[in-house]
């Protein structure tokens, strides 16, 4: 049985997460960055976002298999209940259920924090990502035509959205992730999400 954990990311994970992210920057249009960020810049991002929002890693037998994080969708006050999520998985651990388990965990946590909406921007074409996000409950919201230029080509960015709760009443202030990350409710979320990967690995090995 593999040892599988989903847990909050920390600065000691930064280089391993950056090693996963780097190939997406250098070789794909999944990331809109041209250059791989420095370790200092990456650590700064972690520190900045985790004041309020979760960054999670999946660890399999001591290796960081993937990570996910949430970032503000917009900075103006009226958007404070909406976030964008990103997820990156090491090539070594593709098709093991890592992405769906990480997303399941971060979605539950964002719900507990009081968020209402999650958005993702997907560089087109990327049928695999679209199919995955649809399986996680996202719906197509629209597209920014020819809004991204990388590798000598203009590309559309498709936007998909997911509702975490009904929009029936005025929202309450969200709870910072740092205030709940060490609570029993998060421990339960991490454990139950990691168990989904166990099931996937056992099926693959069966």
Can you walk me through this structure?
The protein is an alpha+beta fold and 206 residues long. It has one domain (4-205): Aminopeptidase. The protein is 35% helix and 29% strand. The protein has a seven-stranded mixed beta sheet with strand order 1-2-3-4-5-7-6, with helices on both faces. The longest helix is centred in the last third of the chain and has 22 residues, at 184-205. The chain starts with a strand and ends with a helix.
Structure at a glance:
With 206 residues, the protein is of the alpha+beta class. The chain has 5 helices and 7 strands. Helix content is 35%, strand content 29%.
Q: List the uncertain runs.
A: none
Q: Given the structure, what is the number of helices?
A: 5
Main pleated sheet: 7 strands, mixed
CATH-assigned fold name: Aminopeptidase
Number of domains as seen in the coordinates: 1
**How much of the polypeptide forms β-strand, as a percent range?**
25-35%
**What is the CATH C level class, in words?**
Alpha Beta
Straight-line N-to-C gap: 12 Å
Structural class: alpha+beta
What is the chains' assembly state?
Answer: single chain
What's the arrangement of strands in the largest beta sheet? 1-2-3-4-5-7-6
User: Can you tell me the overall shape?
Assistant: globular
Classify the helix fraction into a percent range: 25-40%
According to CATH, the homologous superfamily is Gcn5-related N-acetyltransferase (GNAT)
Structural Rg: 17 Å
List the helices and strands and how they pair.
Blueprint: E1 4-8, H1 14-27, H2 39-49, E2 55-60, E3 63-72, E4 82-89, H3 98-113, E5 117-123, H4 127-135, E6 139-150, E7 153-163, H5 184-205
Parallel strand pairs: 4-5
Antiparallel strand pairs: 1-2, 2-3, 3-4, 5-7, 6-7
């Amino acid at each position: 049985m593999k040892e599988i954990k989903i847990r909050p990311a920390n600065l000691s994970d930064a280089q391993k997460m950056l090693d996963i992210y780097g190939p997406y920057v250098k070789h794909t249009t999944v990331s809109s960055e041209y250059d791989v960020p420095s370790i200092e810049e990456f650590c700064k991002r972690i520190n900045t976002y985790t004041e309020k929002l979760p960054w999670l890693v999946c660890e399999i037998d001591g290796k960081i298999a993937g990570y996910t994080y949430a970032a503000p969708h917009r900075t103006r006050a009226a958007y404070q209940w909406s976030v964008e999520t990103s997820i990156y998985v090491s090539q070594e651990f593709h098709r093991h259920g890592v992405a769906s388990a990480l997303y399941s965990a971060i979605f539950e946590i964002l719900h507990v924090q009081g968020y209402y909406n999650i958005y993702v921007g997907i560089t087109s074409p990327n049928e695999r990502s679209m199919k995955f996000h649809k399986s996680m409950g996202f719906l197509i919201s629209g597209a920014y035509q020819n809004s991204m230029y990388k590798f000598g080509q203009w590309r559309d960015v498709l936007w998909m959205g997911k509702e975490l709760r009904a929009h029936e009443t005025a929202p309450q202030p969200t709870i910072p992730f740092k205030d709940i990350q060490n609570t029993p409710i998060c421990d339960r979320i991490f454990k139950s999400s990691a168990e989904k990967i166990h099931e996937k690995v056992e099926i693959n090995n069966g």
